[in-house]
Design brief:
Blueprint lengths: L2 H18 L6 E5 L2 E7 L2 H11 L1 H10 L7 H14 L3 E5 L3 H9 L4 E5 L1 H11 L5 E4 L5 H4 L8 E7 L2 E5 L1 H4 L8 E7 L4 E4 L2 E4 L4 E7 L10 H5 L1 H5 L4 E5 L14 H16 L6 E5 L6 H12 L5 E5 H10 L3 H7 L5 H16 L4 E5 L3 E7 L6 H21 L9 H5 L4 H16 L5 H6 L1 E4 L2 E7 L12 H16 L12
Parallel strand pairs: 1-5, 1-12, 2-8, 3-11, 5-6, 12-13, 13-14, 14-15
Antiparallel strand pairs: 2-4, 6-7, 8-11, 9-10, 15-16, 16-18, 17-18
Helix pairs in contact: 1-16, 3-4, 6-20, 11-12, 13-14, 13-15, 14-15, 15-18, 16-20
The structure holds adenosine-5'-diphosphate.
Adenosine-5'-diphosphate (ADP) binds next to α16 and α20.
């Protein structure tokens, strides 16, 4: 299919999904919301910080590749690495000293809602989805203010023994402090020099310093957990994210096993009356391999229906599942990478017993779908196209405040390189006898026990921002699929 034909598919899918969003009864979204302090780092600011700390100490830490930020030198080392490679990264910090140092030495340009669950909740509310029930275990007053103030976005609480759903601003915990993450964005071609060695940043990207104070727990009070059945009556699916906050050990003696168990219990409760309820987990970069593996093999596996990841996250996931070579191939810069992505998606789908693996990269998205998923390949393709329109909107204007804003995304042209990459994968699959060229374009049905859908995406040349696009893609594809599932599943006896 040439690019013009794809554009026609885009226009049709967009209208189709947009008009059906009202059919979704509701979506439950948990867990991670935070406040993002965003700073676009300029050349002279990097120079100033490098001068302040000294090049040789920073370079020493570049070699060490710190996986946790303990001090400003660790921070600068990870910033230099991200800028050098043009790669996105997220690194945790466990104390608030770094926040003070950044406030004193860099400052931020603006602050906004952050965290996958927070971003997805606001997006769904802005798109007009009914009953967006968001849940954040650490809902502080400051945090509550970053949720859109809209009657379709509510947070649960228990008042006088009864479940209530209210705007976050009415149910925050006044005793909690806000969780503030720093997002250091940088632009292509920014020059960085350290000890006479200079490089230019190869592409726009960002480093996230994720704040993980002791009091962050992926958890739910037992009184709320007991009332989940009332929440699930009004939802068609759940978007879950933030498991990366789980720590191996806690000061009170509990371990990640306890939090994995709690997380699984919540999912089981949501699915109690409808085992087919769509439960999507949005993955992210997780430095700790024990936690990364536990999330995949103990929370995602068997319990959830779909998993969303970007290319780096696919490589990271494959790595802990024992596919090191494939992980390496995914990260290769040549046309083989899209083939490795497909092969990797097959491993994830099978090993984690999922119904859908959604992979987004710059230029194309892939959905690998198991035979038992209720939506056909055309539906999955429409979902990816709709997701791409949302991503393009977010990239081109920097926000999605209403469904009308998404018209902007539809205007963005398809990325030619992404369209070319499709050709590499098509040639490989046809060669392997997995599907014919025609099938490839409309979606390979039941190729080796699964279906494959891949679309070229719309990419904005000079994006207004890069944060949150991945979340828009996954949330967009998820709700688009929900519009296609007409059978809402079983109900517990006694529920209307
Ligand atoms: P985040 O967590 O910040 O959302 P991800 O890495 O999960 O980041 O997702 C980034 C995705 O956004 C990429 O995989 C790509 O598909 C999309 N994207 C990035 N830049 C652009 C752009 N300029 N135009 C359209 N889509 C983009």
């Amino acid at each position: 299919m040439d690019i013009n034909d794809w554009e026609i598919q885009y226009a049709e899918a967009y209208v189709n999904i947009k008009d059906s969003l009202k059919d979704i009864r509701g979506v439950f979204v948990a867990y991670n919301s935070n406040i993002d302090a965003i700073k676009h780092v300029k050349e002279e600011e990097v120079r100033k910080l490098v001068d302040l700390l000294g090049c040789s100490v920073i370079q020493g830490q570049v070699v060490q590749y710190p996986r946790e930020i303990k001090d400003p030198v660790d921070l600068m080392a990870r910033l230099v690495i991200s800028m050098r490679d043009g790669k996105a990264a997220e690194v945790p910090t466990y104390n608030t000293d770094l926040h003070e140092w950044l406030m004193d030495n860099l400052g931020f340009d603006r602050a906004r809602m952050g965290g996958q669950a927070g971003i997805m909740s606001n997006l769904l509310a802005n798109l007009g989805i009914h009953n967006v029930t968001t849940y954040v275990p650490w809902l502080s007053k400051e945090q509550a203010e970053y949720f859109v103030d809209s009657p379709n976005l509510l947070h649960p609480a228990v008042e006088n023994g009864e479940l209530v759903l209210k705007p976050p601003r009415e149910v925050y915990n006044p005793h909690l402090k806000p969780k503030v993450n720093w997002i250091l964005e940088f632009s292509k071609d920014t020059k960085v020099c350290c000890a006479g060695e200079c490089f230019a940043v190869p592409r726009d990207n960002r480093l996230i310093i994720s704040s993980r104070p002791d009091w962050l727990h992926i958890d739910m009070s037992s009184e709320l957990y007991d009332r989940l059945p009332q929440i699930r009556q009004n939802i068609d699916g759940a978007l879950l994210a933030g498991y990366q906050m789980i720590k191996e050990e806690y000061e009170d003696g509990t371990t990640y096993h306890d939090y994995v168990k709690k997380s699984v219990n919540v999912i089981s409760r949501l699915k109690e009356c409808n085992p087919r309820m769509q439960i999507h987990v949005e993955f992210t970069s997780i430095q700790n391999r024990v936690i990364r593996k536990a999330i995949l093999t103990e929370i995602v596996k068997k319990h959830t229906t779909s998993l969303g990841l970007d290319t780096v996250e696919v490589a990271n996931a494959l790595n802990v599942l024992g596919y090191e070579e494939l992980a390496f191939a995914v990260m290769s810069k040549d046309e083989k990478s899209v083939i490795a992505l497909y092969e990797g998606a097959v491993r994830l789908l099978n090993d984690l017993q999922l119904q859908v693996v959604n992979i987004h990269s710059l230029g194309h998205y892939i959905s690998l779908v198991s035979q038992d998923h209720p939506v056909d390949v055309e539906g999955h393709r429409d979902a990816l196209l709709f997701a791409s329109v949302l991503a393009a909107t977010q990239a081109s204007i920097g926000y999605i405040n209403s469904i009308d804003d998404t018209k902007e995304g539809l205007k963005v042209p398809i990325y030619e390189k992404g369209h070319e990459d499709l050709g590499s994968l098509a040639a490989y699959l046809v060669h392997k006898g997995v599907c014919s060229m025609d099938e490839f374009e409309s979606g390979c049905i039941n190729a080796m026990g699964h279906s494959l859908v891949i679309v070229p995406t719309k990419v904005v040349d000079k994006p207004a921002g890069t944060v949150g696009i991945g979340d828009a893609i996954s949330a967009g594809a998820f709700i688009a699929l929900l519009t296609k599932i007409k059978d809402k599943g079983e109900k517990c006896p006694g529920h209307t």
